[in-house]
Design a protein that fits this description.
Helices cover about 30% and strands about 20% of the residues. By secondary structure, the chain is an alpha/beta fold. Bound molecules: guanosine-5'-diphosphate (GDP), 6-O-phosphoryl inosine monophosphate and magnesium ion (MG). Guanosine-5'-diphosphate binds next to α1 and β3.
Length: about 425
């Protein structure tokens, strides 16, 4: 049984928690897209200190799991080495249990610099990126001539020659376009690459071949999506998106296996909506309700610490994400965060220019102006973070979940009532 975990909103739906939980019965956990813009939180036991993973698959915390960083990921060697070091200080050894695709692209210092310069130049019109160099790195991959891959770490002589040319080009570009006066040094960047090669070199593998072998042998593979469907480069709220196909559509290109290798596409969504960074957000509550959700749900970015924008659950956008990804089942997180709100609202439809829309709109201009039609449900007061069984939830909380399930048309098989592993109610409707 192979499963692919996919975010259905604008990221941070709690994918890390779901992957950690399902990791118990997985042989491999595979990241197939995004880079260190991701921040996946894993809380193993109630009240325990959390792990924040950016590049390492969340399976890395489990002893018998092989973790794979597949070709679709953009690898920042600096962050990866820091993460490996951080885990080793907490007693978790990363070595033979990690494989990295030689086809994955490398995020370099000049990508991060370009991300920062571009955002600064855009001023109020910025995208609100994580400034992790993600967009510029994927852009170089598409450009081809300026892209560097993980496999290049295996030929340091060749890498040095290419790096000199690319850094020179980038310096000239930054000076001409942004008036930058602090050129980067190719030698300095190269010395970092040497360190990455030492540590990561033995982990470089043809992960496509590995995954096909494991699939054939019947090993249980868990694919860990990063970001969310509404941040997908093609299908999300462009241009306020990330630079990869972060919906389920990214799986095949990002891991080199066909979608039919997956038996279950498991979507993850919060019981409300959040978004970090700029861009349209129809159900946003920039008011007391939004602040209540942010405080109660600790809605601050795992990667950048930025406060997340909060709002009501949006049936239109999540329904769209389910269609795009062929989602079979849903894990609904953060139900506990809604306790204390008198009423719960769910957006059932969008209206634009006096007309009802029957699909999530592609045009930014329209999405920025839609009016939401809400259905109001009864809220609940009780603290549900210790509830162990779906049937033991207060009636209004149960009704809320059942109504979402009815409207979305797919089973909600997991309900999150807190950040830790055991705060997940499992159900088979
Ligand atoms: P990811 O990027 O999708 O893995 O999600 P993040 O880790 O960035 O953000 C999710 C946040 O919500 C983390 O702080 C989790 O520990 C926390 N979380 C996950 N599920 C629940 C839940 O059901 N209830 C509460 N209160 N917190 C949760
Ligand atoms: P996880 O995997 C939430 C957002 C950024 C910004 C936009 C573009 O933790 O769910 P980028 O740095 O990718 O160029 O930024 O995408 N973004 C995320 N938001 N969770 C994430 O990952 C995100 N990764 C990128 O905030 O709006
Ligand atoms: Mg996150």
């Amino acid at each position: 049984m192979n499963t692919c975990v996919v975010g259905l909103q604008w990221g941070d739906e709690g994918k890390g928690k779901v992957v950690d939980l399902l990791g118990e019965t997985a042989d491999l956990v595979v990241r197939y897209g995004g880079g260190a813009n991701a921040g996946h939180t894993v809380v193993r036991g109630r009240g325990e200190k959390s792990f924040a993973l950016h590049l390492l698959p969340s399976g890395i915390l489990r002893k018998n799991v092989l973790s794979v960083i597949a070709n679709g990921v953009v690898v920042d060697g600096e962050t990866l080495l820091e993460e490996i070091e951080g885990l080793s200080q907490r007693g978790i050894v990363v070595g033979k249990n990690l494989r990295i695709s030689g086809r994955a692209h490398l995020v370099m210092d000049y990508h991060k610099k370009q991300d920062r310069l571009s955002e600064e130049a855009l001023g109020a019109g910025k995208l609100g990126t994580t400034v992790r160099g993600i967009g510029p790195c994927y852009a170089d991959k598409v450009t081809r001539t300026t892209g560097l891959r993980v496999e290049d770490l295996l030929d340091l002589g060749g890498l040095y020659e290419r790096l000199k040319q690319i850094v020179d080009l980038k310096n000239r570009y930054f000076a001409a376009i942004y008036g930058d006066k602090e050129p980067l040094e190719a030698d300095e960047i190269f010395s970092k690459c040497r360190r990455w090669a030492e540590v990561l070199g033995p982990m470089i593998t043809d992960t496509t071949a590995l995954l096909h072998r494991c699939w054939q042998e019947g090993k249980r593979i868990l694919f860990e999506g990063a970001q969310g469907t509404l941040l997908d480069l093609d299908h999300g709220t462009f241009p306020y998106v990330t630079s990869s196909n972060s919906s389920g559509a990214g799986l095949s290109a990002g891991a080199g296996v066909p979608a039919k290798a997956v038996d279950c596409f498991l979507g993850v969504a919060k019981a409300y909506s959040t978004r970090v960074g700029s861009g349209p957000f129809p159900t946003e509550q920039d008011n007391e309700t939004g602040r209540y959700i942010r405080d109660k749900g600790h809605e601050y970015g795992t990667t950048t610490g930025r406060p997340r924008r909060c709002g009501w659950f949006d049936m239109v956008s999540v329904g769209y994400s389910i269609k795009i990804g062929g989602i079979d089942e849903l894990a609904l997180q953060h139900l506990d965060t809604l306790s204390g709100l008198k009423e719960l609202k769910v957006c059932r439809g969008y209206r634009y220019d006096g007309k009802k829309l029957d699909f999530f709109p592609a045009e930014r201009r329209i999405l920025e102006q839609v009016e939401c039609a809400y259905e109001t449900l009864e809220g609940f007061e009780e603290d549900i973070s210790r509830v162990k069984d779906f049937a033991a939830l207060p009636e209004a909380a149960r009704k809320y979940v059942l109504r979402l399930e009815e409207l979305l048309g797919i089973p909600i098989t997991m309900v999150g009532v807190g950040p830790s592993r055991e705060q997940m109610l499992l159900r088979r409707p």
